[in-house]
Design goal:
Elements lengths: L7 H10 L3 H8 L6 E2 L5 E2 L11 H6 L4 H8 L2 H5 L5 H19 L6 H17 L5 H7 L4 H12 L12
Antiparallel strand pairs: 1-2
Helix pairs in contact: 6-7, 7-9
Length: 166
């Protein structure tokens, strides 16, 4: 490790001319840590350094300022295996499709089962498993619970082999 700066004039120079990692990340549009342990240790998704996106990147995918704020606070690093505006938008679209299908369930209809299975399986690939902490933090079941696990349990016939739906 390099020698530590201790002279007051040198410390002042460093503080005036250099940045903390968190400050650089904030200036670059990188999100905050997705998880912080009780001891203050911060954890980031593996693709963190590829997560430099602007509000324009979000707008181009049909996302808004609220989505960008959730990105910057690290929320999507909790939810998604790979964080990008395209994956955030895709997750929202898949949840919308699943919710629409569940609003008018038709488990006896092969086309409905295939469409539901396709959307749930794609969402499953995008989303992380989540933790007990996540469920407590959000104060509700996470999207995996509602749109993947619960759907598969409620409509098992939609998740059978495609050739043997019924």
């Amino acid at each position: 490790m390099k020698n530590r700066v201790s002279d007051p004039d040198d410390v002042r120079y460093v503080r005036e001319n250099y940045f903390l990692l968190e400050e650089l990340c904030q200036r670059a549009g990188l999100p905050e840590a997705s998880y912080v342990l009780n001891d203050g240790t911060k954890f980031y998704p593996g693709d963190y350094l590829q997560q430099q996106f602007t509000t324009e990147d979000f707008s181009a995918c049909g996302l808004d300022a609220e989505d960008y704020a959730a990105f910057l606070d690290g929320t999507f690093g909790i939810c998604l295996v790979s964080v990008s505006p395209a994956n955030i938008a895709r997750k929202s679209k898949l949840i919308e499709h699943i919710a629409q299908a569940l609003a008018e369930p038709a488990p006896q209809d092969d086309a409905w089962c295939v469409a539901l299975r396709t959307a749930v399986d794609e969402l499953d690939v995008l989303e992380r498993p989540f933790t007990k902490f996540d469920r407590e933090y959000f104060g509700r079941p996470v999207s995996r619970d509602t749109y993947i696990t619960e759907v598969r349990q409620t409509y098992p016939q939609a998740f059978r082999d495609e050739a043997n739906i019924h």
